[in-house]
Amino acid sequence: MAKGPRPGHGPLTGVRVVELAGIGPGPFAAMLLADLGADVVRVDRPGGAGLGIDPAYDLTNRNKRSVLLDLKSDEGPARVLDLVERADILVEGYRPGVAERLGVGPDTCLTRNPKLVYGRMTGWGQNGPLADRAGHDIAYLALTGTLSMIGKPDEPPTVPANLVGDYAGGSLYLVVGVLAALQHARAHGEGQVVDAAIVDGAAHLATMIHGMLAAGSWQDRRGANLLDGGCPFYGTYATSDGGHMAVGPLEGRFYAEFIGLLGLADAFPDRWDLARWDELRAAVTERFLTRTRAEWTEVFDGTDACVAPVLSLTEAPHHPHLAARSTFVEHSGLTQPAPAPRFSGTPVSVRCGPARPGADTAAVAADWDVPALRPDSTDTP
After folding, report:
1. Which H, E and C letters describe the chain, residue by residue?
2. What does the pLDDT read at residue 342?
3. pLDDT score recorded for residue 330
């Protein structure tokens, strides 16, 4: 018989994380750890982290607590080290050398807590000719070749928001790294530094593509391949009302259902006749323009044709499948993606809204037994 949920909020309940406030992939990685149940204490700086987002809407700070410390003050680094002594993981996203100059670099922290997992999130990595250079998601994707694959062949590469670099190639790799290192630390009693670079992660994401390139089944140019829009039955098509449908019936039986429902089965019986791909794409384009997105959604509903409407960010939470799974939840008046993945024995949830800078200082001081953090402490900077 399956056991019921254990007390707590997720499989990382009991894990303590110190997050040195930053922007982008570092906070998202710490949010994922918090979503999974870790007690994440974000060390916010006076004046904010730099993007000017109202803290009440910064969902990457949900499920966390915040203390306010000035790391450039005399006492700031000492208070961070007090937290580090009691932590399992630290996450920082400074340029190489900055944490060291602030007095909270890995050598100092690991001396204080030899079992600490010290996670470093950067774009270029801790070493290499570009390590000290500024950068953002788009530049990291550009140099790894990943950006060159995205978009139409006759147009500049398409910017995939900051999802592929910052979050997929950065945050998720940092989380995998610190959890693997945490497993090692608990088994062997020794911490270590995890160097998560977005260039490394973004390159790693394309491992399958590099294999296909080596095998000669992928061309090193946009819009010429099976999965990059070059294939007429793997892409998006406009509808009569300005909407779009996503099409992806790669397998034979799914394609047969797709082309039949589209009304083109007799015209294009051989989908692998590459000489007719442009003709097939034109015919599919013309067909989708004859109906609205809602009408095509109804045509393909309940089938295995692998066709779906392209929904907007505000439409997505209302889709029946996502609503049934509670893929999006509402908390503190904000609709947001629910924590993922899901666990049968240690369920995860949105436990609290975005942490307000410094709002939890007294509670953290008590829970982590760091009395010098207390607002009324004479040692608090």
Report:
1. CCCCCCCCCCCCCCCEEEEECCCCHHHHHHHHHHHCCCEEEEEECCCCCCCCCCHHHCHHHCCEEEEECCCCCCCHHHHHHHHHHCCCEEEECCCCCHHHHHCCCHHHHHHHCCCCEEEEEECCCCCCCCCCCCCCHHHHHHHHCCHHHCCCCCCCCCCCCCHHHHHHHHHHHHHHHHHHHHHHHHHHCCCEEEEEEHHHHHHHHCHHHHHHHHHCCCCCCCCCCCCCCCCCCCEEEECCCCCEEEECCCCHHHHHHHHHHHCCCCCCCCCCCHHHHHHHHHHHHHHHCCCCHHHHHHHHCCCCCCEEECCCCCCHHHCHHHHHHCCEEEECCEEEECCCCCCCCCCCCCCCCCCCCCCCHHHHHHHCCCHHHCCCCCCCC
2. 96
3. 96
Residue pair 220/149 in contact (Cβ under 8 Å)? The answer is: no
The confidence score (pLDDT) of residue 268 equals 85
What does pTM read for this prediction? 0.93
Residue with tokens 């995939």: 160
pLDDT for the residue numbered 260: 96
Q: For position 378, what pLDDT does the model report?
A: 53
What does the block give as tokens for 47?
A: 């004046």
Amino acid letter, residue 318: H
- Which tokens is 351 given? 């436990």
* 136 given a catalytic annotation: yes
> Angle 367-371-373 (CA atoms, 0-180°, nearest 5)?
90
Closest CA to 54 of 357, 293, 278, 318: 357
What is the structure's pLDDT at 286? 98
Residues of the chain with pLDDT under 70: 1-8, 49-52, 376-381
Active site residue 166: yes
Q: Which of 107, 132, 136, 318 is catalytic?
A: 136
Among 39, 44, 82, 166, the active-site one is 166
Give the pLDDT confidence score for residue 20 in this predicted structure: 97
At residue 269, the pLDDT reads 80
Which amino acid is present at 243?
G
